[in-house]
Specification:
Length: 821
C-alpha cells in the first residue's frame, strides 16, 4: 500500500488519555507485550509497558505528520549529525504530549511511582557534549515549530564511554544502553542501503560526446539499515523522525572459511560491520583509529543521502529539483564527505553533468561550523581518503580545480590565498580539508554565536569568506525550554506559572514578564526555596553515589562540560587551591561556604585532559579531608556526566563557570541552561556569553579576563607567562604547591609537566586571566553575602533567557537558510 492509497483510508479515532484508560492499557501491554502479570512485574517491566502506551499515542501523530507533509508536497529538512545526545525520552515525550499528570495518576493506581521507574530508562549514549545535545534540542524544536524534518546519525551500540573514577583517574567502560533493547525505536528493513569502501574506479563506455562515465567497484561492502525514533514536539502536534543507521555485513559468515577452520576470517565482515557502529569517536591517535572514524562518517553520510534521494525520487521524480524539496544541514565537519557523495550519486547514478550536479549540491547543503580550533576542523591524509573512497577523491580534486580556477582567474587570488582555500592541505603530508569541502559545497555557512561568526570570517575561513562574502551568517544557538526548564525544574516552572501565567510555556520570550518580580521580597523567598530544594536533591545524590556530604546552604559553584584545556577547568582548580590557601592562612575572615563541583569526560587519548581530571580529584581529596577548611570549602568531581546528571546539577547550581579562553568557545549551551535555571554566570566574553550579557544585563553577569582580541594580541606580542606568574603571589604559590607534589605525595612529579606548560607558553591564558578570575570570585563572595541582591540577579537571568530558546534558533534557520517557513 502506498501513501496515496493510505490517504483514502479512515483515520483512527484519537485515543482516550484519562487515567483509567491509561492504566488499563498499561496492564494490557504488561500482559501481552512483556508477558508478565502485575504481581510478577518488576520496575523495568512497568517502565517498558508505560513506554509502549505512550508510544502508541505518539505513533498516531507521527503517521499524521508524515502524511500531511507528503500531501502538501512540503520541503523537508535533513539534519546530518554524528551525535544526538538525546538523553532519556520518557519524561520528554509524556510532558510534550501533556500526559504527565494522567500517567502519574494511572501508574499510582497500579501501585507504581512514575518518578522511580523513569530513572531506570537508559541514557542514550549517542553524543559527547554540546554539539550532540544541540542536535537533540534542534530536533525537538523542529517538531515544535512545525518544520518537517529527519535527523540522521549512527545507532551506536556503546556510543560514548561510561566514565568511572578509579584512584582519581578516568576509566573508560562500555556504555551498554542497548543491552535490553530500546522500546522507542522501529527497525525499517525496507530502508537499507549498500555502503562501499576501497576498490577501484573503472571507466564505462564513452557516450556520444566521448565522455566516459565512472563506475566505482568497492572492495568492502556493508548494509546500512535504519532504526527510527519518533521526536515529539511541544503539545504533540508534530512528530518528526530521528533515523539512526546500524551496519550489517552482506555475508554474516563465510561458511567455506569457517568449515575450513578459519573461524576468525569467516567472521571478518561481521566484525568490520560491528566496528562501524560500536563506539562514538574511536580514538584517532593511530592509523587504524583514523580509518574507522572516516569509515563511520562516510557510512552514515552515504546511507542518509541514498535515503534522501530515494525519497525525493519517489515523491517528486527528478533530482534536479532536490534543492526545492530538501534542505540538508551538515552539523560540523563530520558529515562533510556528504558533499562528495551527493556529487557521486548525481553524476554516476543519475547522469547529471558536473556543473549541473555542483549547482544542485550547493543549493541543497548548508553547513554549521562549531569550532575555531584548527585541529577540530577535520582533515584526512590523502592516501587514506583515496584508498577508502577512490571515487570521492577524484571528485574532491575536480571540485578543488573548479574552486581554485575561480579564485585565481575571476578573483585574482594570490598563492597564499589559493593555498588557504584549497581542499587539499599541502603543508606537510597532504590532507583533505573537510571544513573547506563543507564550505565550498554549501550555499550557507553559519556560526553559532555572534562573536564566533565574526571570528570565523577573520580566522579559519578568512580567505573563503573573501571568495564568497555573502555565505557566512550567524545563528546563535539555543536550548529547548521544555527539557531544560519545565521538565528538569518543575518547582521553578510552577513558581513561574504562578507569577506570570502560562504564556512562557509556548513562547519562552514571555519570561521577560518576570523582570518586575526581581525585587519582590516574597517572590525572592519562594525562588530561593525552589533553589534550595534542588540543592538538597543534588546533595542527596552526591551522598549516595560518592559518600560526599555537602551543605545545601553553601554556594554551589559548578563547571560541568567536556574536559578540554581551552575550557579551562585547570584555571578553576588552581583558583580552588589558592582559595584553600587563603582560608587556611586567614581563618579569622568571614569566608563564604563554597562547594566546587566538576563533571565531564576527557577523550581517551587526550593526556592533559585526563590529567586535569586526576588533579581535580587529588585536590578534592586533600581539601575535603582537611579540618582547617571544613564547612568552608569542598571540591568534588562527579563521575559519568551525562544528560540525566545535568538535569539534576543545573537546577541546583548557584554559580555557572563559563571560563573558556576568549575566542575559543564557539557558543556554549550549558551557559544558557544554567542561567535559565537561576544560576549566575562567571565567564569570559566568549561564545554566547557576549549575547547573554546583552540579554540579562551587564550588571547581572560576572565577566572577567582578556577579550578575544586581547588574547590574539598577547599571543602575537611575545606574552611571557613566567613574568605574570611571578608577579602574582596567589597564583605562584598555588602552582608551586601543585607542581611540587603537595596534592600528589605518591608521585611528586605527576603534575610537573602540566604546570611547567603554564610557565613556558600558557597557550590557553590560564596565568594571564588568573588574577582577574580570582578577584571576580571574591566579588561574588561579597554578593552572596547580600542574598536579596543575589536572588534579584538570578531572577533577572531567568527573565532574560527566553531569547535563547532553540525554537527561536530553528525559526531563523527555517526562514533564512532552509526556506521552509
Amino acid at each position: 500500500m502506498n501513501l496515496t492509497t493510505a490517504a483514502s483510508l479512515p483515520k483512527p479515532a484519537p485515543r482516550a488519555s484519562d487515567p483509567a484508560t491509561l492504566a488499563g492499557e498499561i496492564i494490557e501491554r504488561l500482559t501481552y507485550r512483556i508477558g508478565k502479570n502485575a504481581a510478577a512485574a518488576k520496575a523495568h517491566d512497568w517502565l517498558a509497558a508505560s513506554i509502549l502506551v505512550v508510544r502508541d499515542r505518539i505513533i498516531d501523530s507521527w503517521i499524521a505528520s508524515t502524511q500531511e507533509t507528503y500531501e502538501a508536497g512540503a520541503k523537508r529538512v535533513y539534519y546530518l549529525s554524528l551525535e544526538f545526545l538525546i538523553g532519556r525520552l520518557m519524561r520528554d515525550a509524556v510532558s510534550n504530549l501533556g500526559l504527565m499528570e494522567a500517567m502519574r495518576e494511572a501508574l499510582s493506581s497500579l501501585g507504581v511511582d512514575i518518578d522511580l521507574i523513569r530513572e531506570l530508562e537508559p541514557d542514550a549514549a549517542l553524543g559527547n557534549g554540546g554539539l550532540g545535545r544541540l542536535a537533540a534540542c534542534f530536533m525537538e524544536s523542529m517538531a515544535t515549530v512545525d518544520v518537517p524534518a529527519y535527523g540522521y546519525g549512527i545507532r551506536y551500540v556503546n556510543g560514548m564511554f561510561r566514565q568511572e573514577i578509579s584512584d582519581g583517574w578516568q576509566v573508560e567502560l562500555p556504555e551498554t544502553w542497548l543491552a535490553h533493547g530500546n522500546n522507542w525505536e522501529f527497525e525499517r528493513r525496507e530502508a537499507s542501503y549498500e555502503i562501499g569502501f576501497g576498490g577501484v574506479v573503472e571507466l564505462a563506455a564513452a557516450d556520444g560526446s566521448g565522455d566516459h562515465a565512472r563506475h566505482w567497484k568497492p572492495h568492502d561492502r556493508f548494509i546500512a539499515t535504519a532504526y527510527d525514533t519518533p521526536v515529539v514536539g511541544w503539545r504533540g502536534e508534530r512528530v518528526n523522525t530521528l533515523r539512526l543507521w546500524t551496519a550489517q555485513p552482506i555475508d554474516p559468515i563465510l561458511l567455506d572459511a569457517f568449515n575450513a577452520g578459519d573461524h576468525i576470517g569467516a567472521l571478518r565482515e561481521s566484525n568490520q560491520a560491528e566496528a562501524l557502529t560500536r563506539v562514538l569517536y574511536p580514538a584517532d591517535a593511530t592509523p587504524a583509529g583514523q580509518e574507522l572514524r572516516l569509515r563511520q562518517e562516510y557510512f552514515f553520510s552515504s546511507a542518509s543521502l541514498q535515503d534522501i534521494t530515494r525519497r525525493h525520487l519517489q515523491y517528486f521524480g527528478d533530482l534536479r529539483t532536490l534543492p526545492d524539496k530538501a534542505a540538508i544541514q551538515l552539523n560540523d565537519t563530520h558529515p562533510a564527505v556528504a558533499v562528495a557523495e551527493l556529487m557521486r550519486i548525481l553524476i554516476d547514478h543519475h547522469d547529471l553533468g558536473f556543473d549541473e550536479a555542483w549547482d544542485v549540491t550547493r543549493r541543497t547543503f548548508s553547513y554549521t561550523n562549531h569550532t575555531l580550533l584548527p585541529e577540530a576542523l577535520e582533515s584526512w591524509p590523502v592516501p587514506l581518503f583515496e584508498r577508502l573512497l577512490p571515487r570521492h577523491m577524484q571528485l574532491v580534486y575536480a571540485i578543488n580545480a573548479k574552486l581554485l580556477i575561480e579564485a585565481r582567474k575571476d578573483r585574482g587570488f594570490d598563492d597564499g590565498a589559493i593555498s588557504a582555500i584549497s581542499l587539499i592541505d599541502e603543508g606537510g603530508d597532504r590532507r583533505v580539508r573537510m571544513g573547506n569541502l563543507a564550505f565550498a559545497g554549501s550555499h550557507s555557512v553559519n556560526g553559532v554565536s555572534a562573536l564566533h561568526t565574526e571570528l570565523m570570517k577573520e580566522t579559519v575561513f578568512a580567505d573563503l569568506h573573501k571568495l564568497y562574502p555573502d555565505r557566512i551568517n550567524n545563528k546563535t544557538n539555543g536550548i529547548t525550554p521544555r527539557r531544560w526548564l519545565m521538565q528538569c525544574n518543575p518547582g521553578l516552572t510552577s513558581l513561574l506559572r504562578e507569577a506570570i501565567g502560562d504564556a512562557f510555556l509556548d513562547d519562552a520570550e514571555a519570561l521577560q514578564a518576570l523582570k518586575p518580580f526581581a525585587e519582590d521580597s516574597a517572590f525572592q523567598e519562594k525562588f530561593a526555596a525552589v533553589k534550595r530544594a534542588n540543592k538538597v536533591v543534588l546533595s542527596n545524590l552526591l551522598r549516595d553515589r560518592m559518600g560526599l556530604k555537602i551543605d545545601p546552604d553553601a554556594l554551589f559553584d559548578t563547571q560541568i562540560k567536556r574536559i578540554h584545556e581551552y575550557k579551562r577547568q585547570l584555571l578553576n582548580i588552581v583558583e580552588a587551591v589558592a582559595l584553600y590557601d587563603q582560608i587556611r592562612s586567614h581563618p579569622e575572615r568571614d569566608w563564604v561556604p563554597r562547594v566546587k563541583l566538576f563533571g565531564g569526560k576527557a577523550a581517551p587519548s587526550y593526556h592533559n585532559a585526563k590529567l586535569i581530571i586526576k588533579l581535580a580529584n587529588d585536590v578534592a581529596r586533600v581539601i575535603n579531608h582537611d579540618p582547617a577548611v571544613q564547612g568552608m570549602l569542598k571540591v568534588a568531581f562527579v563521575p559519568n556526566y551525562n544528560v540525566s546528571l545535568a538535569e539534576i546539577m543545573m537546577p541546583a547550581a548557584d554559580l555557572s563557570e563559563q571560563i573558556s579562553t576568549a575566542g575559543m568557545e564557539a557558543s556554549g549551551t550549558g551557559n544558557m541552561k544554567f542561567a535559565l535555571n537561576g544560576a549566575l554566570t562567571i565567564g569570559t566574553l566568549d561564545g554566547a556569553n557576549v549575547e547573554m550579557r546583552d540579554h540579562v544585563g551587564a550588571e547581572n553577569i560576572k565577566i572577567f579576563g582578556l577579550t578575544a582580541a586581547q588574547v590574539s594580541e598577547w599571543r602575537s606580542g611575545g606574552y611571557q607567562p613566567r613574568k605574570v606568574i611571578e608577579a602574582s603571589r596567589e597564583l605562584s604559590q598555588a602552582l608551586s604547591a601543585i607542581q611540587s607534589g603537595v596534592f600528589s605525595p605518591d608521585d611528586r612529579d605527576r603534575y610537573r609537566d602540566l604546570i611547567q606548560g603554564l610557565y613556558d607558553h600558557d597557550w590557553f591564558m590560564v596565568a594571564a586571566d588568573f588574577d582577574a578570575y580570582h578577584a571576580a570570585q571574591r566579588e561574588l563572595d561579597t554578593l552572596w553575602g547580600d542574598q536579596p541582591q543575589w536572588r534579584a540577579q538570578a531572577i533577572r537571568n531567568v527573565a532574560g533567557m527566553g531569547w535563547f530558546s532553540s525554537d527561536r534558533t530553528i525559526r531563523q534557520y527555517a526562514s533564512e537558510i532552509w526556506k521552509v517557513l
